[in-house]
Design goal:
rod-shaped, 340 residues, 6-stranded antiparallel beta sheet
Length: 340
């Protein structure tokens, strides 16, 4: 009953080989699971038959079958160095304490043809052959090279745009500052030079004198005296808690208003007294130790601001693209070195 359950099969992957080539003999045993099994053992380079030696044997490979059966296989690698037709005898296995044999096999060993008629003709070894061209290997490099060329062209285009878009040079100017009391005293000196206090045109004299005072008060005290009446100026000075010569200044503005609007005529000494009061008011209210220079920062137009922003964007874009070109070029060269 057990003998009927054991089946031994053998096969060879090639029935003919050249001298020195290898063939594989597969020995398979089907038996009941749990039965002891022994395969034939060969030492390395041991002959399975004269002229055919066993090089190695694999470990047993087990496959489950139906009805509690298993198949155990083992592969033997054989070779031969003599031309002949060899008979491989049946291989014996032990299963369940009994011996079983496989079928016998044949192996034909062929020799390499040699031209014995022309032994003087021999050829040197061939050179290393180039690998065949494979588009799949070169496709990424090709498209990355195209991208690299496009990026370089874009960098040059942006550089030309940047060169044509000239920078907006905004220089800060330092100008000499004329203090309010200095301006006022220059105007009063000009009045004296023009002999305005003794002029018959008293309206022009008081107009220039009060305008000089108004400009001084506007720059010195910080309110729009040019657009205010005389009484409003006096009231505003009193609110600023500057009581210096308020009475004299009120009298000067009152006289000026009478001359300009009521055709009032003044005496020469009255004109001189008002001029002296104006000078004294300026001297007593002037601010010393003020900076004599002024920093003037240019104001850019909206178009100039946009131009500066576009130049900044172009510079950043050129820098980023240039870095990307360098990295991409280095990667392409590295990949080419691997292919060659």
């Amino acid at each position: 009953m057990l003998a009927a359950q054991v089946n031994v099969e053998s096969s060879i992957d090639s029935i003919s080989i050249l001298i020195g080539e290898q063939a594989h003999v597969t020995l398979s045993v089907s038996l009941k699971k749990g039965q002891p099994l022994e395969f034939p053992q060969f030492k390395p380079s041991e002959y399975i038959t004269p002229g055919v030696e066993v090089l190695e044997a694999t470990t047993a490979d087990t496959t489950d079958l139906d009805n509690g059966m298993i198949r155990v296989s083992r592969v033997y690698t054989v070779t031969s160095f003599d031309e002949n037709l060899y008979y491989l005898p049946a291989m014996k296995v032990k299963a369940g304490g009994k011996s079983y044999e496989s079928k016998s096999l044949a192996l034909k060993v062929l020799t390499v043809p040699v031209d014995t008629l022309h032994p003087e003709q021999f050829f040197p070894p061939k050179n290393v052959q180039d690998n065949p061209f494979s588009w799949s290997e070169w496709r990424p490099l090709f498209w990355l090279s195209v991208l690299f060329v496009l990026l370089v062209c874009l960098v040059f285009y942006l550089r030309s745009r940047l060169k044509n878009n000239k920078p907006i040079i905004a220089r800060v100017r330092i100008i000499k500052r004329v203090l309010p009391h200095q301006k006022a005293m220059r105007e009063i000196e000009q009045l004296k030079a023009d002999r305005m206090p003794t002029s018959e045109d008293q309206k022009a004299y008081y107009t220039r004198l009060t305008d000089t005072l108004r400009k001084y008060i506007e720059e010195r005290f910080g309110f729009n005296a040019m657009e205010m009446t005389s009484s409003e100026i006096i009231e505003r000075l009193q609110q600023a808690e500057d009581k210096t010569m308020i009475a004299e200044l009120r009298e000067l503005f009152t006289t000026a208003d009478l001359v300009k609007f009521a055709k009032y005529s003044t005496l020469i000494n009255e004109n001189d007294m008002n001029l002296v009061n104006a000078i004294q008011f300026i001297n007593e209210t002037k601010q010393e130790n003020q900076p004599e220079t002024e920093r003037v920062e240019p104001k850019l137009t909206e178009q100039e601001v946009r131009s500066q922003r576009s130049r900044t964007v172009l510079k950043w874009a050129i820098g980023i693209l240039a870095a990307a070109c360098v990295l991409l070029f280095a990667w392409i060269v590295w990949q080419l070195s691997l292919l060659f």
